[in-house]
Amino acid sequence: MRVSTQRRIALSLVPALLLACAQLPKEGTALTTDQRAEAQKTCVAQYTAAGAVGGALLGMLISGGNNRVQGALIGGAAGGALAYSIAWGKCLQLYSDVNSFPVADARQTATTIGYDPRQGNLVRIERFTVTPAQVAPGGTLNLAGSYYVMSPDGQRDVKVVETRTVHFYDPQERAWKELGSEESSVTAAQGTRRSDGRTGMPQEVAEGRYRITFKVAALGREDKASQEIVIRKS
Which phi and psi angles does 186 have, rounded to 5°? Predict the structure, then answer.
């Protein structure tokens, strides 16, 4: 089969995939439990279908020029549990509940950490944990983090972006592969914040090693912390 023919077949499948994507709720939409479950199914079906019907070529088309390795991974995982893991990463926001809130103002934080305005802008993650360290497919992970954002102008509110990213360890290539991420942003007072949440997953995800990375960005600075977990049937 010629490449041009493969491309035409792949492109003919894209409208169906876009239709599935269009049925998803807009980001930030409040969902009931039933609506969330339905959105999860729709999103996961979109990406597992991409792997099953299009192979590596369609995966590359969906991912775009800057993400062809991940796109090929989608295609190569056709019909397998890894396809569900990739779909989990792509649909992570629909599986996550996050609560971010202040725990200490700028003055209290400055006293605790010994902040000096001459240090300039600071963004620092103090703690990040993911529990349990081992979970069965379809289980729930608990995420807990704390961080502080400081600047010489401690009274100014700043935009803070929190990002959580899932990686899967590919034992064949001996490398971590990014599956997807979700982010939330808030305009908040400087100081110390907590960011706690729960993340579910499809029951069909592949067993293996995963890594959850928490990133905080503000004031032109960022900090990251990661923890590895294992997904395995008990």
Answer: -150, 145
Alpha carbon separation from 127 to 147, 150, 152, 192 (Å, rounded): 7, 17, 23, 11
- 132 preceded by cis ω (within 30°)? yes
One-letter amino acid identity for 147? Y
Contacts of 85 (CB under 8 A, 6+ apart): 77, 168, 179, 205, 206, 208, 210
Would you write out the chain's pLDDT as a tens digit for each of its 234 residues?
A: 444 544 544 444 454 454 444 466 566 566 678 888 888 888 888 888 755 444 443 444 444 445 545 555 554 444 478 889 999 999 999 999 999 999 999 999 999 999 999 999 999 999 999 999 999 999 999 999 999 999 998 888 999 999 999 999 988 889 999 999 999 999 999 999 999 999 999 999 999 999 999 999 999 999 999 999 999 997
The radius of gyration of the chain from alpha carbons, rounded to an integer in Å, stands at 20
As given in the structure block, the two tokens for residue 182 are: 């979700």
Number of CB atoms found within 10 A of residue 191's CB: 19
Residue 104 vs residues 125, 186, 190, 221, 230: alpha-carbon distances, Å? 14, 16, 9, 20, 34
Between CA 74 and CA 87 the distance in angstroms is: 9
Query: Which of 70, 200, 88, 196 has the alpha carbon at shortest distance from 139?
Result: 200
Residues 61-98, buried b or exposed e (16+ Cβ, 10 A)?
bbbeeeeeebbbbbbebbeeebbbbbbbbbbbbbbbeb
The structure tokens 């979970």 sit at 135
